[in-house]
Amino acid sequence: MPYRAPVNEFRFLFDHVVDLASVTAEERFAEATPDTVEAILTEAGRMCEEVIAPTNRAGDTHPARLENGVVRTSPGFDSAYAALAEGGWVAVSADPEYGGMGLPVALTTAVNDMIASANLAFQLNPMLTQGQIEALEHHASDELRELYLPKLISGEWTGTMNLTEPQAGSDVGALRTKAVPNGDGTYAISGQKIYITWGDHDLTPNICHLVLARLPDAAPGTKGISLFMVPKYLPKDDGTPGDFNNVRTVSLEEKLGIHGSPTAVLEYEDSKGWLVGPENGGMKAMFTMMNNARLGVGAQGIGAAEGAYQHALAYAMDRKQGKSAVENATGSIVDHADVRRMLAAMKADIFAARAIALSCAVALDRGRASGEADWQARAALLTPIAKSFGTDVGMRVADEGIQVHGGMGFVEETGAAQYLRDVRVTAIYEGTNGIQAMDLVARKMADGGEAAFSLLDEVEGFAETARETMPELAAPVWEAAETLREAVEWLVAQGDLNDRFAGSSAFLKGFARVLGGYYHLRAAIAEPGGARERLARFYITRMLPEHVGLLAHARAGAKDLYALTPDDLAA
Amino acid sequence: MPYRAPVNEFRFLFDHVVDLASVTAEERFAEATPDTVEAILTEAGRMCEEVIAPTNRAGDTHPARLENGVVRTSPGFDSAYAALAEGGWVAVSADPEYGGMGLPVALTTAVNDMIASANLAFQLNPMLTQGQIEALEHHASDELRELYLPKLISGEWTGTMNLTEPQAGSDVGALRTKAVPNGDGTYAISGQKIYITWGDHDLTPNICHLVLARLPDAAPGTKGISLFMVPKYLPKDDGTPGDFNNVRTVSLEEKLGIHGSPTAVLEYEDSKGWLVGPENGGMKAMFTMMNNARLGVGAQGIGAAEGAYQHALAYAMDRKQGKSAVENATGSIVDHADVRRMLAAMKADIFAARAIALSCAVALDRGRASGEADWQARAALLTPIAKSFGTDVGMRVADEGIQVHGGMGFVEETGAAQYLRDVRVTAIYEGTNGIQAMDLVARKMADGGEAAFSLLDEVEGFAETARETMPELAAPVWEAAETLREAVEWLVAQGDLNDRFAGSSAFLKGFARVLGGYYHLRAAIAEPGGARERLARFYITRMLPEHVGLLAHARAGAKDLYALTPDDLAA
Questions:
Q1: Is the ipTM of this complex over 0.95?
Q2: pTM of whole model > 0.95?
């Protein structure tokens, strides 16, 4: 069941749902003409279909291996990577000064989504490089930028992020890796980092590590963290890789999924590093990288969902089992109400999650192009939702994809289970989905809810107009937005953050449910009477009502939760 | 992190929530005195903790293998099986006339739950044997009963169910395996069966297959199916295994989970079989087996959830990461609101699912002991809910268990991921959860909703009384029951079954949510002011409200769903 890139879907979303035209109207993105957008989507889609998707199973069945200190990647990944680099697909949004295309993040998000559908384990490689490029563009010295950016953007070298240590996961501030000044402007980096995605591999002659570490006199916690560029091989004067920089791969993790992506434990021992950003300013630089990466991970979830959906739909259309008395019966299990319900819910959720992610990307692009604080705040608000909901949808759709397959879904040969195993990690890395929810109700509501209310104004305004032509769909969306508004009002009134945190995951899910209703409504209005209106009706009637329970949970507060003591939990 | 059998939890549920005393008051179960119940739970719990749980990881990492036509089971499974058989734990409820203990199914359900926590792959073995015993007790001739039951009940031999063929999964009526009379009262069975759980192994000297097949002149569909006992080795006159009966293991499936459970493709070629029940009466006999097995699978889901919960709680209590300003802080991640929320939701859901499963078992026991149609109808109503909700909870809890572990959850070494991989199949086999939901809204509502209304009367009656002492908890339960009542009324009024099927999965989940509220309320009333009241408050405030969205979905009907055509889904 080959992957088919949903190029038309992206075009529709750009044109009718997330208003890409408002981005390309900005001078900065003037080159992103409709023809360019079309060409990018089509060409990237073709590469995903023809070159990358065929490597997906091999990545799962032949994991990356550590052999005598060298990481060997899965069969076929080398030529897939060559095609990716050659086509310029590593960094679609990177700075043209260093060889990037300078296109909107909205386009990068679409391209990443397609690559993730084709092979999630593989897609992590360019995604990490993208984050590194972003961090260097914003925080590195001219010298570092000139040396590294062209090689990263072209795909000649790849990049990694090194945050986690055994005792420092979600709590980055607890990290211990040391950085001692060498006296020549460089630093000696020593320590162990874990969970380093694509931390080592044989696809490129060098690998560039961005490493968080502490200077000898650094303050404890996140205020004493600095960021360093530590290449695996030290670049010679001509820019080619020279001496080994003492970055050793200790081991690779044996994981539930993304077997094709080597997850390394890396040991640094007096490895030479160059400061990126100011001393003790590492967290800020890292957040540049992480915010972008969070949207990227959301797109991964959506891409995995798309792959799982296409896989399940193809199976269902082909599988004959029992009979159901329906008009225009296909004779396949798609005739059964519960199977059709699963497929429709999968498709409706993918649409909602993709619209949220692309709206986030559009806000990011507009914020960057215009410098307007409102758009930056919108992007900041939508980032945790895009990450968390996108990955939740990835897991839910992959799980339902298994269910559509029945017994075949549990047999690895079918490939349905791989989607679930692969996508599961996306709810964990780049800040767990719980961390995203905390970010949403605390930092992203530190404005007193202003960014959220502004978005809800947009939703309600659209629903009011839509009510004239599609009252049955518009009214529930408007009402859901009101319920969400009340939840936001309740949240921002809570002085004790734990009262917000207690229901934060439910709040984020409820927020996404409501936004999904809004974007489905936009789609229905854009193509009245068609498939999109029918899908919107399905979503608004059957899935949107979930927001009621979620937003009730969101407002339950911390008291009853903490009343449940650890002893109670262990009883 | 060793498994700890929740013996006190079962005792509490039996005494205060599901009224086991009403079962043991029946003469048939007079031997199930409180002391016996206590001894059974304690001894079974000890075996699970000390003998079975230690084999769980080995089953995953060293799957059963097919070597030269012989299936080799995972390391340690042989001695675990020996302990199981020796303790008489294969069939706690089996007929004492053939060596069983004759205890209530409620106790079997508790024992199965514990074995499933300890090792789900292993537990499938006795679960299948239990189903076979049940079918033989009800439908086999005296000769077959006398020959097979003692050996199955003692665990000397094991039993399997053979339904599925490549073209006949959920649609059992499509099966093609042939049964040709040999002229001596036996039949020659030929055909291929797939997904045969524990279809072959080296734990016992014989394996007894119950096989669905068609006589030469049989009607098409389910009316032309007969059931046969086909042993792997033909019993000699002294009852010991003799000649090989041409049951060949073609292959074992490579599965997402339960690696320790060999899932076989079996090839029958003129294998000798004995009819169980009348000719063409196979479906009825198989349903005896399946109904029981459905409750058993529900218990599997709950058992897996319990294992995953204990695993996650132990990890969370030990893991230090970040700080949270709470009273009586532990210093571990349990202090974080969202982690505590996950753990509380896991525990609350396990309680709800277990109460539903045990209520179903109690109804089954009372129906059997008294012959009262009301109890039989109650058991029939609760069976699909117990199966589907129990396994949904299994998946949800295992999934949240991974999330509690953060990055460690994605690394196989931790063991958290195994729970999810193992439990995933329980939502598929013994009738997918979608099939359960269809059964609930069609066959189980063919009484016009009578059994459901009777249960809701019980719920509302209890909530009315409870309102006097715990109005905050009782009122939402009463209101939820009313909303559910309205949904049942709507469902039974639908003449077109597809209108029921369209929202059947949501209906089942909503039904379970409401019942969960009822059982939590019972627990709170039984121990006011304690941990159980606090957990009930958590569930009723934060999880019960989900029923609103679910029951709205349940009543959406088929029209809008089928308006979404296969072309729409592929667009």
A1: yes
A2: yes
